[in-house]
């Protein structure tokens, strides 16, 4: 990572740590964040964090150097995040604007736990999944609301890796993808990398329709 700018301030007070107005600019990212935590003697998952972040662009491959689940997503969206709570159940409000669509809503991150993951509800607009999963056949255009539970994947006791898994439900006025185009769509399914299984209903081509994969 080629860091062009790095500036901010660090403060320790009463057992709390705060990094204020940390401004970072690289070849692919430009963001400002303030974050801090209390409970410095507690395990990481039990410390309480406060985070605000504004990014004009945030390279997910660069973030992936620290947070592997997004390392393979070649995007640099604009992003706003406000977060508070323990690292194991971090409550977040997020707003994402990208070339692959927009999303906003409340999330809960489970970090530093045996089964790390992310869950919540997002309102999405014109989402194209093909670059999120690096599969051209996943070209989509999705607008609506999705509720999901994303397990990042982690090593098992015998050393074999467990794949990423996403359980989801979706409802929205329109969706296009996987050979279908419909309105008033409702679907639910599970994505266990690299396979997707779902059931969907909606109105398409002047009639009610259903699809299953």
Structure in a nutshell:
The protein has 213 residues and is mainly β.
Descriptive account of the structure:
A hairpin with a 3-residue loop joins strand 2 (16-26) and strand 3. This protein has one helix at 60-63, and strands at residues 3-13, 16-26, 30-38, 48-57, 78-86, 90-98, 101-110, 117-127, 140-151, 165-177, 180-192, 195-204, 207-212. The model is unreliable at 155-160 (pLDDT under 50). The protein has a 13-stranded antiparallel sheet, with no helix packed on it. It has 213 residues and is mostly beta strands.
Distance between the termini: 40 Å
Gross morphology is globular
Mean pLDDT: 87
Element-by-element helix/strand order: EEEEHEEEEEEEEE
Layout of helices and strands:
Blueprint: E1 3-13, E2 16-26, E3 30-38, E4 48-57, H1 60-63, E5 78-86, E6 90-98, E7 101-110, E8 117-127, E9 140-151, E10 165-177, E11 180-192, E12 195-204, E13 207-212
Antiparallel strand pairs: 1-2, 2-3, 3-4, 4-5, 5-6, 6-7, 7-8, 8-9, 9-10, 10-11, 11-12, 12-13
Search tags:
13-stranded antiparallel β-sheet, mainly beta, 13 strands, 63% strand
């Amino acid at each position: 990572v080629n860091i062009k700018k790095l500036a901010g301030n660090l403060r320790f007070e009463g057992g709390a740590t705060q990094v204020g107005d940390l401004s970072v600019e690289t070849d692919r990212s430009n963001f400002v964040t303030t974050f801090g935590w209390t409970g410095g003697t507690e395990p990481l998952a039990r410390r309480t964090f406060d985070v605000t972040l504004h990014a004009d662009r945030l390279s997910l491959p660069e973030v992936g150097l620290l947070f592997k689940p997004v390392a393979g997503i070649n995007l640099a969206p604009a992003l706003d995040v406000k977060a508070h709570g323990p690292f194991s159940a971090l409550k977040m409000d997020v707003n994402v604007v990208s070339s692959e669509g927009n999303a906003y809503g409340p999330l809960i991150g489970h970090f530093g736990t045996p089964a790390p993951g992310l869950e919540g509800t997002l309102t999405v607009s014109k989402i194209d999944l093909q670059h999120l999963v690096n599969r051209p056949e996943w070209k989509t255009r999705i607008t609506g609301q999705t509720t999901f539970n994303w397990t990042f994947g982690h090593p098992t006791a015998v050393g074999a890796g467990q794949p990423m898994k996403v359980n989801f439900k979706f409802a929205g006025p329109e969706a296009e993808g996987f050979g279908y185009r419909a309105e008033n769509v409702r679907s639910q399914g599970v994505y266990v990398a690299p396979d997707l299984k779902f059931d969907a209903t909606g109105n398409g081509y002047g009639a009610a329709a259903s699809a299953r994969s």
